[in-house]
Specification:
The protein is an alpha/beta fold. It is 31% helix and 25% strand. Strands 3-4-2-5-6-1-7 form a 7-stranded parallel beta sheet, with helices on both faces. α1 packs across α2. It is globular and about 40 Å long. It starts with a strand and ends with a strand.
Length: 140
């Protein structure tokens, strides 16, 4: 069964997403990130410059020069577009279709009231479907 983990109370969401992806990549995980195009563009840009001393390897599904076989972090608008099913990081406001095909699903919720409300809704949806949800409160 898919393992679902929420990280809540995140003060700087984009920076936290980058750190989480870097940690997963260092651990050898293959991560798919799904969400709205505008947010994926911002995350893509942030991943290029958030660390000056190292590069977090990533790419857009279907992007020029991106070989999904060798790219540990892939960005796509939908979970179904991702070629592997190891770990899914959802950055969208809704529970992603097809999430149950992944071994793990990560949800990162900022301190923004709209994000908190959407996060609570997704949390309840996962629980209602019978998934055991882990919760980590991020210290500010």
């Amino acid at each position: 069964m898919t393992e679902v983990t929420f990280y809540t109370g995140v003060p700087e969401r984009l920076l936290y997403l980058c750190r989480l992806l870097r940690k997963a990549q260092r651990g050898g995980a293959r991560v798919g990130v799904c969400g709205p195009e505008a947010l994926l563009q911002r995350l893509d840009a942030k991943l290029w410059d958030f660390e000056t001393a190292e590069f977090v390897p990533h790419g857009r599904v279907g992007g020029e020069g991106v070989d999904a076989r060798f790219t540990p972090i892939l960005l796509a608008e939908t979970a179904q577009d991702l070629p592997h099913r190891e770990m899914l990081l959802n950055v969208g406001p809704e529970m992603p279709a097809g999430f149950e095909e992944f071994q793990r699903v990560l949800e990162v919720v900022s301190q923004d009231p709209a994000q908190m409300q959407a996060g609570r809704r997704r949390y309840k949806q996962y629980e209602a479907l019978g998934f055991a949800v882990k919760h980590h409160k991020v210290a500010a």
